[in-house]
C-alpha cells in the first residue's frame, strides 16, 4: 500500500560551508533528533547529500511538521512516498501522490531530479515517463509546466525514490551549535528575547544573563525572565540563565552618581559583569536587545561610552529595526505577552527623567571614581545564580555518533 511514509528535509546555507559542511549537517541532524525523539520514538534518521530523510514508521506527520518549523537550519521539507528505484513503482507513486492532493486539480507538472547518477533514466526522460502515465490514468487533467495546480517532485537517490507534492517552509538560518557561544543580556522587555531569537538563527549557542534587584524587583519579575528563556528553548534547546544580584551595586550607583549619568554608569557595570561571566562560560561575545536611538542609553554616543569597559565583542542584532518590527517578531515567537507583564526589571528602577543621550567616556570615568567598581563587580559575579532552562530533551554526543 502506498503511503506518505517519509519526510524529506532540505537545507540551504549549509551548502555554502565547503569543508565544514559535514559538521553543519551532523549538527542539524542532532538538533532535529533532540526535538523529535521524546515524542516520536519510532522515527528513523538518514543523512544523504543535501537532504535529511525521516522515516515515519507510523508516526503522525502533523505534529512533526509543527516542530520542524521551529528548527533553524531547515530551508524546507516535504511529506514523501518512498519506493524502490523501479520505474513501474515510481509511476504508481506519482499517480497516488496526485490523487492525494487537496483541492481541485486540473493541471500538474512532474519535476524529477536524478541525484543517484547510476540510475539509467535521465531526469527529462523520467518526467516524460511519469507524466505520460499520470495523464493516461486520470481524466480532465492536463500538464502545465509553468503554473500547475500540483507539482509532483521526484528525487531518485541510492536509498530509493521519493515522490512529493507539497513543500513546507522552514526557518532557514544555520543549525544552533555551529557558530560559538554568546551571552545574551536578557531583560524582561520585548527586545532582548527577539535578539536571542536572531542569534539562534545564526547558529549561536545561547546563554543568558539577567540582573535582578530585590526587593525593588520581585520574584514575579525573575520568573518572567525564566519564562522568556523557556520560550527561546523552543528554537535552540536548553539555555543557561545566569541571575546576577544587582541590588547593592545599583543602590551604590544611585547614591554616588548624578541622576543624568546613572544609566550610563549602570550599563557600564552591567557590561563589566557580563564580560566576567562570559569569560567563565567561554562565551565569545555579549549580545543585547538594543536598537539604535530607541532610548537615551541606545544612542551611538551612549554605546560608544558604555562599550569602552569591555574588550569582548558586543552584538546588537536589533540595531536597525523599528519597534514595530520587533513587536511583530515577538508575537510570532510567542514572547510578547510575557514581555508586557507589568513587573519591573532593574533598568526601570531609579530611572531619571534626564538621562544623557550623549555621555562621553571622560564624564563616565569622572563619576566612576566615586564608585567602588572592582569590589562590587566581583561580588556580583561571585553571587550569580545559574539555572538551566531545558527544552523537551537532548541527545548525547555518543548517541549521535552512533546514529551517524
UniProtKB/TrEMBL annotation:
Keywords: ATP-binding, Cytoplasm, Nucleotide-binding, RNA-binding, Thiamine biosynthesis, Transferase, tRNA-binding
Cell compartments where the protein resides: Cytoplasm
Major location category of this protein: cytoplasm
Binding site for ATP: 185-186, 210-211, 267, 289, 298
SMART domains the record matches: THUMP
Annotated protein name in UniProt: Probable tRNA sulfurtransferase
Catalyzed reactions per annotation: [ThiS sulfur-carrier protein]-C-terminal Gly-Gly-AMP + S-sulfanyl-L-cysteinyl-[cysteine desulfurase] + AH2 = [ThiS sulfur-carrier protein]-C-terminal-Gly-aminoethanethioate + L-cysteinyl-[cysteine desulfurase] + A + AMP + 2 H(+); [ThiI sulfur-carrier protein]-S-sulfanyl-L-cysteine + a uridine in tRNA + 2 reduced [2Fe-2S]-[ferredoxin] + ATP + H(+) = [ThiI sulfur-carrier protein]-L-cysteine + a 4-thiouridine in tRNA + 2 oxidized [2Fe-2S]-[ferredoxin] + AMP + diphosphate
One of the GO BP terms on file: tRNA 4-thiouridine biosynthesis
Alphabetized GO MF terms: ATP binding; CCA tRNA nucleotidyltransferase activity; tRNA binding; tRNA-uracil-4 sulfurtransferase activity
Function: Catalyzes the ATP-dependent transfer of a sulfur to tRNA to produce 4-thiouridine in position 8 of tRNAs, which functions as a near-UV photosensor. Also catalyzes the transfer of sulfur to the sulfur carrier protein ThiS, forming ThiS-thiocarboxylate. This is a step in the synthesis of thiazole, in the thiamine biosynthesis pathway. The sulfur is donated as persulfide by IscS.
HAMAP family, per database record: ThiI
Domain of life: Bacteria
EC number: 2.8.1.4
UniProt similarity note: Belongs to the ThiI family.
One Pfam family cited in the UniProt record for this chain: ThiI_fer
THUMP domain sequence ranges: 62-167
Organism field: Halalkalibacterium halodurans (Bacillus halodurans)
Pathway noted in the entry: Cofactor biosynthesis; thiamine diphosphate biosynthesis
GO CC entries: cytosol
InterPro entries, per database record: Rossmann-like_a/b/a_fold, ThiI_AANH, ThiI_fer, ThiI_N, THUMP_dom, THUMP_ThiI, tRNA_STrfase, tRNA_sulfurtransferase_ThiI
PANTHER family, per database record: TRNA SULFURTRANSFERASE
Amino acid at each position: 500500500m502506498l503511503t506518505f511514509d517519509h519526510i524529506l528535509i532540505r537545507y540551504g546555507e549549509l551548502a555554502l560551508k565547503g569543508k565544514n559542511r559535514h559538521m553543519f549537517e551532523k549538527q542539524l541532524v542532532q538538533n532535529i533528533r533532540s526535538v523529535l525523539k521524546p515524542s516520536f520514538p519510532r522515527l528513523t534518521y538518514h543523512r544523504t547529500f543535501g537532504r535529511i530523510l525521516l522515516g515515519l514508521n507510523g508516526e503522525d506527520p502533523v505534529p512533526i511538521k509543527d516542530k520542524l518549523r521551529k528548527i533553524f537550519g531547515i530551508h524546507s521539507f516535504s511529506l514523501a512516498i518512498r519506493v524502490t528505484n523501479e520505474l513501474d513503482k515510481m509511476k504508481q507513486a506519482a499517480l497516488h501522490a496526485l490523487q492525494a492532493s487537496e483541492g481541485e486539480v486540473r493541471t500538474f507538472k512532474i519535476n524529477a531530479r536524478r541525484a543517484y547518477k547510476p540510475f539509467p533514466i535521465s531526469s527529462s526522460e523520467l518526467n516524460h515517463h511519469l507524466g505520460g502515465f499520470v495523464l493516461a490514468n486520470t481524466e480532465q487533467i492536463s500538464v502545465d509546466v509553468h503554473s500547475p495546480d500540483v507539482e509532483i517532485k521526484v528525487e531518485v537517490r541510492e536509498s530509493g525514490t521519493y515522490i512529493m507534492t507539497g513543500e513546507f517552509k522552514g526557518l532557514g538560518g544555520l543549525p544552533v551549535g555551529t557558530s560559538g557561544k554568546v551571552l545574551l543580556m536578557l531583560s524582561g522587555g520585548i527586545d532582548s528575547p527577539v535578539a536571542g531569537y536572531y542569534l539562534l538563527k545564526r547558529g549561536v549557542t545561547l546563554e543568558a544573563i539577567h540582573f535582578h534587584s530585590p526587593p525593588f524587583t520581585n520574584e514575579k519579575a525573575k520568573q518572567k525572565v525564566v519564562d522568556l528563556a523557556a520560550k527561546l528553548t523552543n528554537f535552540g534547546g536548553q539555555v543557561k540563565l545566569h541571575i546576577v544580584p544587582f541590588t547593592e551595586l545599583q543602590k551604590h550607583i544611585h547614591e554616588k552618581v548624578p541622576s543624568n549619568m546613572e544609566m550610563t554608569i549602570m550599563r557600564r557595570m552591567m557590561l563589566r559583569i557580563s564580560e566576567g561571566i562570559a569569560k567563565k562560560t567561554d562565551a565569545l561575545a555579549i549580545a543585547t536587545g538594543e536598537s539604535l536611538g530607541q532610548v537615551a542609553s541606545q544612542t551611538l554616543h551612549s554605546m560608544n561610552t558604555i562599550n569602552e569597559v569591555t574588550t569582548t565583542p558586543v552584538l546588537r542584532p536589533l540595531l536597525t529595526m523599528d519597534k514595530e518590527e520587533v513587536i511583530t517578531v515577538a508575537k510570532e515567537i510567542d514572547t510578547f505577552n510575557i514581555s508586557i507583564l507589568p513587573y519591573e526589571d532593574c533598568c526601570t528602577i531609579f530611572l531619571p527623567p534626564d538621562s544623557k543621550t550623549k555621555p562621553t567616556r571622560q564624564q563616565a570615568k569622572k563619576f566612576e571614581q566615586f564608585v567602588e567598581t572592582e569590589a562590587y563587580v566581583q561580588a556580583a559575579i561571585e553571587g550569580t545564580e545559574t539555572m538551566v532552562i531545558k527544552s523537551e530533551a537532548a541527545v548525547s554526543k555518543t548517541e549521535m555518533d552512533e546514529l551517524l
